[in-house]
Amino acid sequence: MDTRAEILHRQAIIVDAHNDSLARMRSKGDPMDFGAVDEPYHCNTARLRESGITALFSYVGSTDLIASLELWQALLRHPEVYPDTYVVARHAADICQAKQDRRIALVGQLESCSCLGKSLGALELFHRLGLRVANLTHGEGLDRHETSLQVDGSVFDYTTADARQAMRREVRGLTEFGRDVVKTCNSLGIIVDLAHANDRTFFDALELSQQPCIFSHGCVFAICPHFRGLMDDQIRALAASGGVMGVAFYHRFIHQEAPSMDRLMDQVEHVVNLVGPEHVGLGSDYDGLPDDAVPIPPHPGRLIEFTEALVRRGFDDDTVTKILGGNFLRVFQEVCG
Ligand SMILES: [Zn+2]
Questions:
Q1: Helix (H) / strand (E) containing 133
Q2: pLDDT exceeds cutoff 50 at 210
């Protein structure tokens, strides 16, 4: 007989809010094709099938425009080559339909808007292609939308709350172009993604955006004091916008000394206790991690372990379903229609 976790997992619309597989395939010189790769990639068609993931927010570019165009081509090709397996989702209804049809809905996600140059027209074209989620930055540095956390990382020790506050006073927030991007995303129906943004940019964008924003992949600073973690005031502000944060499966985002599924659950529980069950989901970052990473769960074929852990942690059915994808789907519906 199926366990409660298995039933919930099978019934849920599962949304993984961040996946880097196509970009990794491109950078390794492999075909950008989920049907053609195997180990050491975390993801391939068989594992994605096994995962039960309904919607995969899929990296289609960051800083390089030509790379982005090639990634778009790879994404859009999937439903043509594998019509029984993949669709490209442009609206929430496409994700719901994919669930019914047992297909995987790919959602175009920029990991940075730097590849746009300073062109809002390019952003509009990407929207036509299917762009529905846009990270403002991947931490490129001073000449882009903001000061990069990575660039500043050598100056500040982000592992203490005090240092994090000091960083907030030093960094620049959203630039003029960044503001234009947020407004254009709002008008086109693209979800603004604040993962990788520095804290000033994070708050600037939330204040400016008329729609909920997301933080697709990262961690909870209170449990794992990593610079890619959200502090409690950020989680509150994101939730107040109606937004959702995705916990990533990267071990260094889970716990500094002893990463485990339980520590990942501590993060989920922390967000639920802080702002309620409507503002947390998963953003695995599969295939976006360093080669020595040990993600938990190790690959999407074992995603059921995440659901089992949610159930073990004592969350009710409704909360488990929201965390698995209901929350990100709600924002997708609200922003993209
Ligand atoms: Zn990332």
A1: strand 131-135
A2: yes
Tell me if residue 180 falls in helix, strand or coil: helix
* Nearest to 17, CA basis, from 59, 73, 67: 59
Give residue 158's pLDDT.
67
The pLDDT tens digits for 73-108 are 999 999 999 999 999 999 999 999 999 999 999 999
Q: What is the DSSP letter of 147?
A: -
Give me ligand 1 centre to Cα 334, in Å: 24
Residue 221 contacts by C-beta under 8 Å, 6 or more apart in sequence? 161, 164, 229, 230, 231, 232
From the CA of 216, how far away is ligand 1's center (Å)? 8
289 alpha carbon – ligand 1 mean position (Å):
8
CA of 111 to the centre of ligand 1 (A): 7
Instruction: Domain of residue 318: give its range.
Output: 4-336
Kindly report, residue by residue over 253-267, the tens digit of the pLDDT: 999 899 999 999 999
CATH number where 37 lies: 3.20.20.140
Q: What is the mean pLDDT of residues 231-237?
A: 97
CA–centroid distance, residue 78 to ligand 1 (Å): 23
Number of domains in the chain: 1
